[in-house]
Amino acid sequence: MGAVLIVDDIEDLRYSLSALVRKDGYTAFTAPDGASALDTAATSVIDLIFLDIGLPDTDGISLIGRLKEINPDVDIVMLTGINDAKTAVDCLRAGAVDYIAKPFDLLEFRSILNRIMQSRLIGRKARLETAEVGIDRILGSCEAMRRVKEAILMASEVGAPILVTGETGTGKELVARAIHDRRKRQSGVFVKVDCGTLSANLIESELFGHDKGAFTDARQDKKGLVEVANGGTLFLDEIGNLPISLQPKLLRLIEESTFRRVGGIKDIQVQVRIIAATNADIEEEIDRGRFREDLYYRLNVIPIPLPPLRERGEDVLLLANYFLQALKKELKKEINGFSPSACRELLHYDWPGNIRELRNTIEREAIFCRTGWITLHGLASQISQPGPARTPEILTLRAMERQYIEKVLNLTGNNKSKAARLLGISRTTLREKLEMDRI
């Protein structure tokens, strides 16, 4: 039905309002101050917040923006003891949808509560009942992308774990969101966890939460992202970077739908759809002892491999035109399209950064376009140098590989870790190739 957060420093008021919220069938959370409100908003899916304008550690109006940063979709109603027009305007300008002046009638509170929550429910149902969301954003007509779309349609009908693989920038998160969006009976949220950016010390608490007293700074119980995703989708990006010490806990979550918080003594049951993604060679990671084989097989029930952009033929032009149309509206510029020579260069270039690199390139060219057409001259500095027609040259496989590695290293500013990710190999393998060819 939805969740409501009551933020007020008066304990009796929090108790009374939360009781009304539960009586009307909603989940109730409470917080006595701004810090607690931010923590709850970050770890729980909240639909509506009743926010006191005067809190012990901050004023409610300044807190609205921070709460909206965490959840842009949340509705906020201010609770204020100052009943004047200026305060009302300030609240609404800051992002609140309504306000109630204290002391207020509980019938007024319930009226606002149910009006907003029922409106959100109607809007949610309407979004779910509209046409195919998500998959329409997966552009491409090549055979490989047709297979990807078929896999998305099939995967969205079942609850088995999914492993999306592909080079950096090929659209792995977009595929995961398309699968989530197509599960029309699913009311939960899409929660992304980037296993490559969280430190080994933090990731267990972030994923599974912790109980009060589990470690020095654990002053209260905290839900992890697994609990936040309950009823929805947990997207584990860069799964190859998940510490091997945590992999048994993830395996148990997949097999038994249960886990324990850090420092916890009881099992917590959840229903979460697991989608993992990686640009690494997981089988190589298994050989090196950095990834559990049994976890790999449980994640890889439904494999969805994404092709690199260089193998998608004229999909490059389709995507380039899609990005250009969106950028024309954003930049409010009249751009006719791509010149014939620019189209040839778009198709000729091998796009080591894939769709992400293509999008960035089109954005840059659109910003600097002055002629109404994106031309070869505009793209030359990034993609190739203009000149006479190329003469085919026969190279050995070793020489072709060396040239390609050099190109990726140049693109990444000689950042070997980033280059290895773009190449889809480990940094150790890249170092061995560099030493072998003395690049």
Structural class, from helix and strand content?
alpha/beta
Q: Order of strands across the widest beta sheet?
A: 2-1-3-4-5
What is the number of helices?
Answer: 19
Helix proportion? 40-55%
Strand content: 5-15%
Number of strands: 14
Primary descriptors:
439 residues, Rossmann fold, alpha/beta, Helicase, Ruva Protein, domain 3, single chain, 4 domains, 48% helix, 14 strands
Notes on the structure:
Strand 3 (about 50), helix 3 and strand 4 form a beta-alpha-beta unit. The protein has helices at about 10-25, 35-45, 60-70, 85-95, 105-130, 145-155, 170-180, 200-210, 225-230, 245-255, 280-285, 295-300, 315-330, 340-350, 355-370, 375-385, 395-410, 415-425, 425-435, and strands at about 5, 25-30, 50, 75-80, 100, 160-165, 190-195, 235, 260, 270, 275-280, 300-305, 335-340, 375. The protein has about 450 residues and is an alpha/beta fold. The protein is built from 19 helices and 14 strands. Helix 10 (about 245-255) packs across helix 12. The protein is globular. It folds into 4 domains: about 5-130, Rossmann fold (3-Layer(aba) Sandwich); about 135-305, Rossmann fold, CATH 3.40.50; about 310-385, Helicase, Ruva Protein, domain 3; about 395-435, Arc Repressor Mutant, subunit A, CATH 1.10.10.60. A 5-stranded parallel beta sheet has the order 2-1-3-4-5, sandwiched between helices. Strands 7-8-11-6-12 form a 5-stranded parallel beta sheet. A two-stranded antiparallel ribbon has the order 9-10.
